[in-house]
């Protein structure tokens, strides 16, 4: 069965829905099944947490170095400053993620309004 197998308007949407569901929910179900059986300090969970953190860091780095959309209209210095100031706010306020995000967004918006 392929994406172009059926010539109706709804088939691509159904194909994407089913393929997306199978690709993600299988891992979710496995996570729920194994979640209660694996210790938080096990090597496997430490590895999963490390890989997840590295992926988030890579996405953030990609957004800073190779931005798209409205973010591409800002300078690299502004994007770096927003990330640094947001990280410092995150550390200073007590490791609250939402504080770091809000401060970074505020710095970005202020820089865009001021034309930096």
Automatic annotation (TrEMBL):
InterPro entries: Brnchd-chn_aa_trnsp_AzlD
Residues passing through the membrane, by range: 12-34, 46-70, 76-93, 98-115
Domain of life: Bacteria
Designated name of the protein: Branched-chain amino acid transport protein (AzlD)
Membrane as UniProt keyword: yes
UniProt keyword terms in alphabetical order: Membrane, Transmembrane, Transmembrane helix
A Pfam family assignment: AzlD
